[in-house]
Design goal:
By secondary structure, the protein is α/β, with parallel strands linked by helices. 32% of the residues lie in helices and 19% in strands. It is built from 9 helices and 12 strands.
Amino acid sequence: MRSSRFATAPEQRLIVFVPELEALLREALSVPPLIAAMQRLSGTIPLDPECPQAVLATGRPLAAAALSRRLDCPEDCDGTWLRADPVDLVPDLAAVWIRAEARFEAGEWLPELQALFAEEGMVLEMAPSGRGYLRLEAVPECRFTPPWALAGESLDHCLPEGSDARRWRRLLNETQVLLHQLRRRADHPDAVPASLWFWGGGALPDLADVRPRVRRIVADDPVLTGLAEWLGLPCSPPGAGGVTARAGDLFEWLPEPSETAERNLERLQVFLRPAWRQLRLGRLRSLEVAEWREAKAFTPGHAWRAWR
């Protein structure tokens, strides 16, 4: 992902990551004028599907598992990792659906799963955060579906693809069979996940080869938080008192779950207005607004053509 926008100095750029933007725009009955103008103005720039946060922060894809591992286990984070997160499955008459947002603590089910993966020469670990990790010798030749892309998709449409897919589909199936047996025997079946979900595999490159596109990260997202730690950038949660977006930031903007899509888009417009003014005045050279799949980049010229 290379373009002239990468020539902008980090301190003259503001990146606003709105993971739910696509859903908000789809659900809203009306869109505030600034948001509507921004949607019309700029072409879209595709992001790496497995780790768009890394492309926003560094301009290159990086392994999500290796980044979140730095947050979860900073004392043991080198090497090649694959996320193996416990998830729930919801079957119906038509398909099996994945609930990636389900949270499970490590329990009596974990040692049996660890034994299963040990037979494959892999070490399965569960971090206190509830995120699972497989330590690997090499990156699989396989494409995995990240959790954010699972919504509305059945299990059959999200299976691994690639030259190593047969092995990982088999492991997925064996994991589900074993967990189903453990659920049937458990005193509290709901505490046992229905499957593991594999994604985000890889190792991190030499840090000297990576240049951050921002000066600060404001986020709760574990991949972004791990990125900040690895890059040596200051990091704050977006809800921290007094933290506001400024030039040089990668800022994660989250909707209020209790608010409607229309109301959240109005809140987003209020949040973006100061940056849009700074862009128009030339005090900000680039404003990027991104969701999971793509980003839109705006220049002072865009702001002059659609002043709000």
